[in-house]
What we know:
The protein has helices spanning 8-23, 28-45. By secondary structure, the protein is mainly α. It has one domain (8-45). Helix 1 (8-23) packs across helix 2.
Amino acid sequence: MAIKRPKPEDIVVKLRQVEVLMGQGMPRIDAIRQIRAIINQRQLSRI
């Protein structure tokens, strides 16, 4: 099965989400981890 690459629009959305979390005072690494956790949950729900 081929690996699906994210669309540029999806990447921009994720970057904006990280930017919002950082604006709320969250450290960058924690914001990235939170977004990654959301992405992983969505991928698991497709199975």
